[in-house]
Design a protein that fits this description.
Blueprint: E1 10-15, H1 22-35, E2 40-44, H2 50-60, H3 69-93, E3 97-101, H4 104-113, H5 119-129, E4 136-141, H6 144-152, H7 166-182, E5 187-191, H8 196-212
The structure holds thymidine-5'-diphosphate (TYD).
Length: 215
């Protein structure tokens, strides 16, 4: 598997704590890029391919203690590998823009941080089985209390990580900001407290700049 980011297209990921408004912004960015004539593929993790969506159900539904932390890392990574092989890499090779709602940074945070320090395991497995990073990662930074309110406002069966509570969400927020520093060349931090249109506008500006920059 290639270890270079994108072959021809542009690989963009969105990251942030639960309820940060990512999904809305993914849709807005896709509409913006399509309106300027780009071929855009919108996808998400865990999931995005048939097999990975099956794994999504395994990790996000049912008893939260169903899997050990290590098994969970393997499942998320297995889903990601399938997603890359079947959807992301082919789309990038075809010159498309891929927008992915969460990618490996979510595993670095959620699995790497939430049940002890498993970040080295996440990174080793990533190097071995994934080896791809987005060209651009948009971190929607958000006050965890606000984020939690938004996340809890939604009904659904995928409760697993939204039950974390404010304290862990605060650790996640700090973790994501630290990750943005660690991978500063590809991360852009967006203030999620702005109104939705302002967030969308800022993201469009960042992505338009990335598209015109030499790659
Ligand atoms: P998502 O559908 O993006 O939920 P939200 O819109 O609330 O952000 O992600 C589902 C959950 O899966 C989310 O709580 C984060 C978690 N997750 C991990 O724990 N590890 C991962 O590698 C990924 C991609 C997601």
């Amino acid at each position: 598997m290639s270890t270079t980011p994108a072959e021809n297209g542009l690989f963009i990921s969105f990251e942030g704590i639960d309820g940060s408004g990512k999904s809305t912004q993914v849709t807005r960015l896709a509409a913006h890029l399509r309106s300027s004539g780009h071929d855009v593929v919108v996808t998400r993790e865990p999931g995005g391919s048939e097999g990975a969506e099956e794994i999504r159900a395994l990790v996000l539904q049912g008893d939260p203690d169903r899997w050990s932390a290590e098994t969970e890392i393997l499942l998320f990574t297995a889903a990601r590998r399938d997603h890359l092989e079947r959807l992301i890499h082919p789309a990038l090779k075809a010159g498309k823009i891929v927008i992915c709602d969460r990618f490996a940074d979510s595993t670095r945070m959620y699995q790497g941080l939430s049940r002890g320090d498993l970040r080295p395991v996440v990174d080793q497995l990533h190097d071995l089985m994934i080896g791809t990073e987005p060209d651009l990662t948009l971190l929607i930074d958000m006050d965890p209390v606000e984020g939690l309110k938004r996340a809890k406002g939604r009904q659904g069966v995928e409760e697993r990580f939204e039950d974390f509570g404010a304290e862990l969400q605060a650790a996640m927020r700090a973790g994501f900001l630290a990750l943005a520093k660690e991978y500063s060349e590809r991360f852009r931090v967006i203030d999620g407290a702005q109104d939705m249109n302002a967030v969308a506008q800022q993201i469009a500006t960042v992505v338009d700049a990335a598209l015109t920059a030499p790659r």
